[in-house]
Amino acid sequence: MKLDARIPAGPIESAWERCKFEIKLVNPANKRKYRILVVGTGLAGASAAASLAELGYQVDSFCFQDSPRRAHSIAAQGGINAAKNYQNDGDSVMRLFYDTVKGGDFRAREANVYRLAELSLNIIDQCVAQGVPFAREYGGTLANRSFGGAQVSRTFYARGQTGQQLLLGAYQALMRQVSAGQVRLHPRTEMLDLIVVDGRARGIVSRGLLDGKIEVHLGDAVILATGGYGNVYYLSTNAKGSNCTAIWRAFKRGAGFANPCFTQIHPTCIPVTGEYQSKLTLMSESLRNDGRIWVPKKPGDKRPPSQIPEEERDYYLERRYPAYGNLVPRDVASRAAKQVCDEGRGVGETGLGVYLDFSDAIRRLGRKTIAERYGNLFEMYERITGEDPYQVPMRIYPAIHYTMGGLWVDYHLMSTIPGLFVAGEANFSDHGANRLGASALMQGLADGYFILPYTVGDYLANHKLEKVDPDHPACRQARENVEGITRRLLNIKGKRTVDSFHRELGKLLWDHCGMSRNAAGLRHALAKIPEIREEFWRNVNVLGSPEELNQSLERAGRVADFMELAELICLDALARDESCGCHFREEHQTPDGEALRNDADYCHVAVWEWMGEGRAPLRHAEPLEFHYVHPSQRSYK
Amino acid sequence: MRIVLHVWRQAAPDQPGRMVRYEVDKVNPHMSFLEMLDVLNEDLVARGEEPIAFDHDCREGICGSCGFMINGMAHGPLPATTVCQLHMRHFQDGDELYVEPWRARAFPVVKDLVVDRSAFDRIIAAGGYIAAPTGSAPDGNAIPVAKDKAEQAMDAAACIGCGACVAACPNASASLFVGAKIAHLGLLPQGQPERDARALKMVAAMQEELFGACSNVGACEAACPKSIRLEVIARMNRDYLKAALFRRPEPALSGIG
């Protein structure tokens, strides 16, 4: 596997500018001769499909939901970062770049991150022009809030529904192109395999979810913008349908998978209540602007929060990290919550929770201001828990939220399979070992609006692609592979439901490859996963037929892939014998419990190559070089 | 808790459906309605019966995938709440609940509680956007937007496209959905150039999709999980009327990429 990151040589400030100048262009009249397949309609997918269609390419857009507007980007609450410095508080492209590299614990590619910070400026402009109703000041200018891991106020927001509003902007741009005839929309259609012809990505095999029809779609390039794989843990903040199938099957066709063990745990989610629980709900990180996090000082203190006097409370983030306080990055906040709960100081019935308390903020700012800032989040919390956060502190606990790992891409966002581009959360991206809040929306839109429209064109202009026939052996083989998996799943007729396997897998992964990891636990998981997988393929019960809407069958295929991905995650976590960002190996910590990196041996991206069924995947490394932000121990103290 | 459910089961669009009775024991009051259906489905699969099909995804009340009638009320009895956010603590032990899909000519049933809402996408495609090709935007602060206008636009933009308004309306009108988009974009300075054309095209598309007309019943507002207000329909009507009176035909109305 060749890993050429194609980072432009020379100073970082002008790298993207030079790259754009050096790429080859496709003549406007020729663009309509190319067909590009875009899988996924979240921020990255919808913005890429719309922008490529605006340029004149023929685009096919696929999503498994009933409408492109329902992709899970819609659920992002807090905001989107941009280095506009509208607040005059010292922000700059350089600072956003610095914060992101540092926040990612020096495991991201500098050139990519710099470009992301640069493009953040254009994103806000673009979204405003589309009619995204960002929050405004009285004078009509854009408002900002602060987010974790930053000391400037650079987060733009639309109440607690920023993701929804940005996605609707991209969706509407996409639908405009549908109406103009530039985009063919394929809703309720799931990608189940990648077609590779002569070493190049040329199409996909899909299953129509309403009629079960297996179809071959061909094109000149394929873009995967299919999101993250957090649902491998079963309980996560992802939507129920979020899955790894598209990227996993591309991996099995030769795309490298980078840093699979980098899975982000979000510190502020509503705690688990019971076995039936189907998902976890996130409470926006923006709440940490005004909420104060605390637990009782005494272990086992079961008094209601209002009866615990101030001096018996431990505001542990403010105590340990006075400079950033409650706004430390997510990995730091999550681990600190786990530590206090492990000490027996957790709150709520299960003891797995900490308080997020707004009483000081309400006293300081008044209920009205707090309601303006977080009203809908408070309502959501009350709806789920039955408790009123204006009266009693919220209870929160960390949960799986985002995956920094994903398919490896070069500076052009192209995977190790030429012609296969990967965008948004699906790629291993710019966040290193930990993503800062409000950076996911920024990255998805940067990839889709401003990077792919250039780099996909460069690929098409540089390669003469032969026409591929749907009867080509590669198409037939991919199609038979998909039909084979479907048949196999339906023929098992075992005793256990798909979800029961998924839950078992998720619990195992959370226990041994969650917020903290150690070699013994990872080895245990690695021994156990093949057993669960073996039982799954022997004993799962998938009812119904393949030629209809069959939600059990859809889930079964996704869980089958999670079973394989879970093993890769653990292998990666075991091989990365250091702590960095979200990846906390208990063997490697500072005396006060912070992550201890090992730059001498692990300052690289781990890229895994599929070697075939029954063979261990191969680990490659892309070395990371830091010329602008020098790796240091992250300090938020 | 023990809940008795009568659920609409329909194998395919062209097959007749019927209500089927199920008893669900051991319902935990902290469960969401959909989690209760998950538990029922797990039991059904264990018994070799096909699980109930229903649309759902984010389970946070924002994606708009889920939705069905509970005792004749879209998204059930709790105001401003989708079924994924409706928790069983709002029901009583022994309650009997009738669960049916959205009923509207423009939303044909696909299977059980799943309906086809693609008509909404086609209405948006007809004009529910601001044409701002990527790269063409001025600086975000170049055009100030009054705070109250931005807030009102956001109120309307909160629509999740779930279809509850159509299901609740005795005429199966999509006016709240269409009005919400027309109001959202029409309230912003960026939305002005296409404001007339947008109203004309979206209203025409709504009629082509066979949604009914609005007769100001207000059931949509009561059912809306995002509390979209009836006033957006007034805005739609005003924009439509103004555009219909004063707009001159253009040689080419459709957007070009």
Work out the strand percent of chain A. 5-15%
Number of helices of chain B: 8
Strand order of the largest sheet of chain B: 2-1-5-3-4
- Measured between the Cα atoms of the first and last residue of chain A, the distance is 41 Å
CATH fold-type name of the domain at 478-623 in chain A: Methane Monooxygenase Hydroxylase, Chain G, domain 1
Give a brief rundown of this model.
Chain A is α+β, with helices and mostly antiparallel strands.
Textual characterization of the structure:
The complex is a heterodimer of chains A (637) and B (257). With 637 residues, chain A is an alpha+beta fold. Chain A has 17 helices and 19 strands. Chain A has helices spanning 15-22, 28-31, 43-55, 93-103, 110-130, 162-179, 245-251, 316-320, 330-342, 359-365, 367-385, 440-462, 473-492, 498-513, 519-539, 551-575, 599-602, and strands spanning 35-39, 58-62, 80-81, 155-156, 183-186, 189-197, 200-208, 214-218, 221-224, 257-258, 263-269, 292-296, 313-314, 354-357, 394-403, 406-407, 420-422, 604-609, 618-623. The longest helix of chain A is centred in the C-terminal third of the chain and has 25 residues, at 551-575. The mean pLDDT of chain A is 96. Helix content of chain B is 34%, strand content 11%. In chain B, a hairpin with a 2-residue loop joins strand 6 and strand 7. Chain B has 257 residues and is of the alpha+beta class. The longest helix of chain B has 16 residues, at 231-246. The model of chain B has no long low-confidence stretch (mean pLDDT 96). In chain B, strands 2-1-5-3-4 form a 5-stranded mixed sheet. Chain B has a two-stranded antiparallel ribbon with strand order 6-7. Chain B has 2 domains: 3-111, Ubiquitin-like (UB roll), CATH 3.10.20; 117-246, Orthogonal Bundle (Fumarate Reductase Iron-sulfur Protein, Chain B, domain 2), CATH 1.10.1060.10. The chains are: A alpha+beta (637), B alpha+beta (257). Chains A and B meet through helix 3, helix 5, helix 6, helix 11 and helix 12 of A and helix 1, helix 2 and helix 3 of B.
